[in-house]
Amino acid sequence: MEAKEKKYGEIEIEKAQLEAWPNPNPERDYMIEITFPEFTCLCPRSGYPDFATIKIRYIPDKYIVELKSLKLWLNKFRNRYISHEAATNEIYQALYDLLKPRFLEVVGDFHPRGNVHTVVRVRSDENYG
Question: Does the pTM of the predicted model rise above 0.85?
Answer without folding.
Answer: yes
